[in-house]
Design a protein that fits this description.
- By secondary structure, this protein is an alpha+beta fold.
- 36% of the residues lie in helices and 19% in strands.
- The strands form ten sheets. Strands 10, 11, 12, 13, 14, 15 and 18 form a seven-stranded mixed sheet that branches. It has a four-stranded parallel sheet with strand order 2-1-26-27, with helices on both faces. A four-stranded antiparallel sheet has the order 6-5-9-19.
- A hairpin with a 2-residue loop joins strand 7 and strand 8.
- The chain starts with a helix and ends with a strand.
- The protein binds zinc ion (2 copies).
- One zinc ion binds at residues 469, 471-472, 511, 513-514, 516.
- One zinc ion is lined by residues 469, 471-472, 511, 513-514, 516.
Length: 864
């Protein structure tokens, strides 16, 4: 952290001891402003009607675990700096905060501490809210959203019913991911390398359950396509989403099981992007968990054991984390499937590298034209049959057999019956059509994206508002009966099944259709439902008639969504796909105009310490409370912005926070020494003709405004912004403007300039260190609110260097330096360079080929 040194290099009154009243007492200053800010509840309130342009800046809402961690502080410090900057730039800013407060940890904590989840959660919220306030984050608390309260989750239920009515919520029996530690189902997005996203050490099991799903795949194509319309999102996030949605064009082909006596389950569907190679298919490969495998191994214990081994190998590979690297094994079942194109019998294998949760769980293996199939066929001596030849450019020449596997589509079909002679692209089209005409397949687009399973067999979540009636089947709870309240005082310590299922008063309900008995759904919703739309609720958080008012949401979201969304990259898939899905659904309901939730997304880097992620087990956790107590909120939050650029990983150093605190001390001491409000000259205009040292201060001031503004806007290089402010402070100390403190006489830097400089300093510090900035603002006698004080503008003429030093080269080698006016025309610079004594001596008698002048930078004289 080289910048830090700058804060200590320049003398800051070492010639005398700092007076007590010059000492920067962060706790005193911060508690004073903290009290004042608490008294004004509308301080950070967004205006509902405004002539100003709107700006919606949002940080992802936290899970109320009980205490903020440093990652939170960094996330919110970024958002807060931006919000304050936009207020100062004249925007009507919406900057809200809330609590993603349903979820498993509350249940586990409740069991551990014997405290009901609601009580535990609300207690944590209060504690974290206090921390946020102490850190000085400028949130509009009148819009606070707490997802575990009925006034919010009522609308989860309302949305669910709308989704159900539109056919976008449905129930089906399916193999689901089950985490034995969570004791609940996980969505595909929550399975990471075969493990639970929350329990990295726990393998996810497959269970068959009746589940509620949201039809995210209804929007697969749009979710993919619209990524191209989000240039304000990090490319890495868009790439992750593209891969997750995983679109591929191909053909679905049904192979019949040879010798099957019953029609049921006798079809093996295969998806292929290369149907043109199907005459070269010399085996089918099934995933070990393919439903047909059970049947094929029924009376063959040896085969069954082999399959079990493949399953174990696959599980092990998932554990290691990269299934793509698995050593490929397979076993021939001895059974055959019929290739529908030519009736040929194709052996059926079971292989460990075929995944049931990808595609159809079965592939056709074409060793001559696929890398992976080739490798497998070589190993198990399966026939390799060439069906594509490289396109022959010279018809006179006979085709040359290509090196195998030959995988490009630049080829012509051979040995492919009636399709021989077609080129690959044409064959894919013709063969797909053929399959469709004959009822055994079709051209199709598949997506890796699956529907979102939202049922959870847990207590602490939104009850799914559905009823089961013997007569009427599945019936939605009528809107007027919402919310379906989550009962309190439930014993959640018992295991086995949903806790709600053990409450007769919850389960037993009346069917709204027939008036008879109905059974209430006892599963709750995945908590990612809560966070899929919470940011719309902020626009109208107290509405009890609707999730939000269309016009209010329309004002803040406009056509492009949240102006700036900030959060961790770990949400690149889960939360950000779900909320994009929800947005598209709400748009189709006519509730909003925007297609996407956020126009700009920023993902901040992680905070680590000693090279490792902060964790209790490593004992390297830094507590925000301790930092605030020790160094103050300003120093703590400013450090998270200064240590590195916000998108990079930050390796925490306590000394770094200390460095920031020292810098803030210098700023404060300077202000104490150099504020002369009682002097009539203090508020006079800055004189036109300044002496050189004063002019240097003025120039530096305007250069600093320019640098901070440039690095802030759009780039968010807060670290360089802060470094620029530090340089300005160094310059102030360097010119010795310690008025009446043993420095130069006050005339050196006139009081009006001193006032303007300090005023600007307060403005520039406001987004990063609001407490101190407010204190300085008050010390300077400013009456207006700093929150909405206009961001300073720089004057290019004043920022410009009067003179610049330019290196002069001869044939690219540095030979001298000249000092010229900063705006000297090219010809003058050239003339001065040639007239330089040293240069003159070196070029005497030589022939000048060329003189290159880079204005303000360099002169290069080319000699023969
Ligand atoms: Zn788990
Ligand atoms: Zn009924």
């Amino acid at each position: 952290m080289p910048q830090e040194e700058k804060t200590t290099v320049v003398g800051d009154g070492h010639n005398r001891d700092a007076h007590d009243d010059e000492r920067y007492d962060a706790q005193r200053i911060e508690s004073k402003w903290f009290e004042r800010w608490q008294q004004d509840s509308s301080l950070y309130a967004a205006e509902s009607h405004s002539t100003r342009q709107k700006y919606y800046v949002l940080e992802m809402l936290p899970y109320p675990s009980g205490a903020l961690h440093m990652g939170h502080v960094r996330n919110y410090a970024i958002g807060d700096a931006l919000a304050r900057y936009m207020w100062m730039n004249g925007y009507n800013v919406l900057h809200p905060m809330g609590w993603d407060s349903f979820g498993l940890p509350a249940e586990n904590a409740a069991i551990q501490n014997n405290t009901p989840p609601r009580e535990w959660t609300l207690h944590n919220i209060a504690a974290m809210k206090a921390q946020m306030k102490r850190l000085g984050f400028a949130y509009d608390w009148s819009r606070e959203v707490t997802t575990c309260l009925p006034d919010y989750y009522k609308w989860n239920q309302w949305f669910f019913i709308k989704l159900f009515e539109k056919g976008l919520a449905y129930r089906k029996k399916s193999l689901v991911n089950w985490c034995p530690k969570c004791c609940t189902v996980l969505a595909n997005e929550q399975v990471v390398n075969g493990r639970c996203w929350r329990h990295e050490d726990t393998l996810v099991e497959q269970r068959e359950l009746e589940q509620w799903f949201l039809r995210t795949t209804h929007y697969s194509e749009e979710l993919l396509r619209d990524l191209d319309r989000l240039p304000g999102w990090p490319e890495k996030v868009r790439t992750m989403q593209r891969n997750w949605i995983g679109r591929s064009e191909g053909t679905l082909v049904d192979f019949k099981l040879d010798g099957a006596t019953d029609a049921a389950n006798a079809t093996i569907s295969v998806f292929t992007t290369r149907v043109d190679t199907i005459y070269g298919a010399t085996s089918l490969q099934l995933a070990p968990q393919h439903p047909l495998v059970v049947r094929l191994t029924k009376n063959n214990d040896l085969l069954r054991a082999e399959v079990e081994r493949l399953i174990a190998e696959q599980r092990k590979a998932r554990e290691v984390g990269d299934i793509g690297e698995i050593e490929k094994h397979g076993v021939n079942t001895g059974r055959y499937a019929l290739n529908p194109y030519n009736g040929e019998k194709v052996p059926i294998w079971v292989a460990n590298y075929i995944l049931m949760d990808y595609g159809t769980g079965a592939i056709m293996s074409v060793p001559a034209h696929d890398e992976r199939d080739y490798e497998f066929a070589k190993k198990y001596k399966i026939e390799i049959r060439l069906v594509i030849l490289p396109q022959n450019t010279d018809p006179e020449e006979t085709a040359v057999e290509p090196k195998l596997p030959f995988t490009t589509t630049q080829g012509t079909l051979v040995n492919s019956g009636r399709f021989s002679g077609l080129d690959c692209e044409a064959a894919i089209k013709a063969m797909s059509e053929h399959a469709e005409k004959n009822g055994f397949g079709k051209a199709t687009v598949t997506y890796r994206l699956k529907d979102w399973g939202i049922s959870r067999q847990r207590y602490w979540g939104t009850p799914i508002p559905m009823l089961y009636c013997e007569k009427d089947g599945i019936v939605a709870v009528p809107e007027k009966d919402l919310p379906v309240i989550l009962p309190e005082n439930v014993d959640i310590t018992l295991t086995g099944g949903s806790p709600l299922g053990r409450l007769p008063e919850f389960v037993n309900a009346t069917c709204p259709k027939c008036g008879g008995l109905a059974r209430r759904e006892t599963d709750t919703m995945d908590t990612f439902v809560d966070s899929s739309w919470y940011f719309y609720r902020y626009t109208d958080a107290r509405n009890d008639q609707a999730p939000f008012d269309r016009e209010k949401a329309g004002y803040w979201f406009g056509d492009r969504g949240i102006d700036q969304y900030i959060g961790g990259v770990e949400h690149a898939i889960l939360h950000l796909i779900y909320s994009r899905f929800w947005t598209k659904f709400m748009r189709d309901m006519g509730m909003i105009k925007n297609d996407e939730p956020a126009e700009h997304l920023f993902t901040q880097g992680m905070i680590i310490k000693g090279g490792a992620k902060m964790s209790k087990s490593l004992g390297n956790v830094v507590s925000p409370d301790e930092m605030v107590e020790h160094y103050g909120a300003d120093a703590t939050r400013m450090y998270t912005l200064f240590a590195t650029s916000p998108d990079r990983e930050l390796d925490w150093q306590d000394e770094g926070v200390e460095g920031i605190q020292r810098f803030l001390s210098r700023v404060y001491r300077f202000a104490v020494r150099n504020t002369r409000r009682e002097d009539p000259a203090w508020s006079a205009p800055v004189p036109e003709n300044l002496n050189p040292p004063a002019r240097a201060v003025q120039r530096k001031l305007h250069q600093t405004i320019k640098r901070v503004s440039d690095d802030f806007q759009g780039r968010w290089h807060f670290n360089t912004c802060i470094a620029a402010i530090m340089e300005l402070v160094n310059e102030l100390y360097a010119v010795g403007v310690n008025v009446g403190a043993g420095g130069l006489p006050t005339q050196v830097v006139p009081l009006p300039l001193l006032r303007e400089t300090q005023r600007t300093l307060a403005l520039l510090l406001a987004p990063f260190a609001p407490y101190l900035a407010y204190e300085l603002w008050e010390m300077l006698g400013e009456q207006s609110s700093l929150l909405r004080a206009p961001w300073p503008k720089y004057d290019p003429a004043l920022a410009k260097e009067d003179e610049v030093e330019i290196p002069v080269q001869i044939n690219g080698k540095l030979r001298s330096r000249i000092v010229v006016p900063a705006d000297a025309p090219e010809n003058d610079v050239r003339a001065r360079a040639l007239a330089d004594d040293k240069i003159g001596a070196m070029i005497a008698g030589k022939q000048i080929v060329r003189v290159i002048v880079v204005p303000g930078k360099l002169v290069n004289i080319v000699l023969r």
